[in-house]
Amino acid sequence: MKVKKGSKSSWISNCFKIHEEPVRMIREPEIEKKVEPEPIKSPNSTKRISYTDINSSTLSEDLSTSLAGSNLYVFNLAELKVITQSFSSCNFLGEGGFGPVHKGFIDDKLRPGLKAQPVAVKVLNIDGGQGHREWLTEVVFLGQLRHPHLVKLIGYCCEDEHRVLVYEYMARGSLENQLFRRFSVSLPWSTRMKIALHAAKGLAFLHEAKNPVIYRDFKASNILLDSDYTAKLSDFGLAKDGPEGDDTHVSTRVMGTHGYAAPEYLMTGHLTAASDVYSFGVVLVELLTGRKSMDKSRSNREQNLAEWARPQLKGGARKLNRIMDPRLESQYSETGAEKAAELAYQCLSHRPKARPTMSMIVNALEPLADYNEMAIGTFVYTAPTENNKSPVESPEKEVQHKDRKMDSNGHHHHHRHQHDRRHHRSKSPAVHSETDLQRDHMISGV
């Protein structure tokens, strides 16, 4: 199926002018049976194209051929104004490092075959931290990659100086928004583990393709959530093709986000799949603690979450309870938290080869997503009668009497010890709100 075009192809050639890297031919990953889907193959090509394979002189033909079968739509600016009501401020969702994001709606009459649906329209800020190359990288990768835990790119626009991406709309915005926004209801423990599992599956898919992809900017703000809290990776502007043949790493300019980037990548510029694993470990600690990867408002010792938390992740339940997110209000599986903490500890190893692979992480998280531990029932206090006996005994009678002390007036006081908690009470209600993206603070030229 040909890429659908909204205007003449002549203007597209003006969109690709920054290509100084040598052309590298990359072979298309083969699709195996009974596994999660691999990158889409072009009917007319046996390779998966990279953004470095495209040059300005053959852009129109290369892009059309390589993305044939991907069902990407090429929108023109007039159509995007209709979709977003002229980028109305009432449809503004927020702004990230790429640029402003608006909610829009595609009418089923806009294009034949394009179903009616809400969309997120991301417009490149030409004065921002990202540019044409990141826009092109996003189009090329998401135009060929399809997976349940990668956000779906519906189409793009490259008209004059305008660079726009059109995605499926993710109703709950980013994990960063849901986890750290002030005055919102806390994400329940089971939802946090579900999100971690989905994100891990997305990374595992990228790493295990025949031609691996290194995501390079895994962080809470790049994990988007739909109405059911299904997590999908977004923003592929910094993604890189992984090492080929006997190469062990990709040497590249250091880019990413403070607090998430692996230490060996910051020091050497050597990028590997283990770099993504480290970033995943940081996000997992964010889910456990409710703290941001970098927080300048804290003391110097606690500003970098990974450095501060890692020594405490293997201290057992007593030590772990001190750093768990207080907004969970002890509504979590203690055993499940210990297992997740151990996994995060391994991901944050300063020795890249000691970190688990994403497949190993998926296997470790799958049982935690549905982990339920029987809770000890809550204590019910009943005012004593004249003979100082309660008319109704709690079902947990034996446990109650262990923790029950009596004062001089004959009143009972109940004390629950930290190690007796099993962290299961009623789950918090779902949050129904849209994203409030914040500008990313990018690392460049480190």
TrEMBL record:
Keyword Membrane tagged: yes
Enzymatic class: transferase
Entry keywords, A to Z: ATP-binding, Cell membrane, Kinase, Membrane, Nucleotide-binding, Plant defense, Serine/threonine-protein kinase, Transferase
Chain ranges of the Protein kinase domain: 87-369
Top-level taxon in the UniProt lineage: Eukaryota
Gene Ontology molecular function terms on file: ATP binding; protein serine/threonine kinase activity
Transferase keyword on record: yes
Biased composition range(s): Basic and acidic residues: 394-410, 433-446
GO cellular-component term (any): plasma membrane
One GO BP: defense response
Residue ranges, annotated region (Disordered): 384-446
EC number(s) on file: 2.7.11.1
InterPro entries, per database record: Kinase-like_dom_sf, Plant_Ser_Thr_Prot_Kinase, Prot_kinase_dom, Ser-Thr/Tyr_kinase_cat_dom, Ser/Thr_kinase_AS
Compartments, as annotated in UniProt: Cell membrane
Annotated Basic residues bias: 411-427
Main location: membrane
Name this protein carries in UniProt: non-specific serine/threonine protein kinase
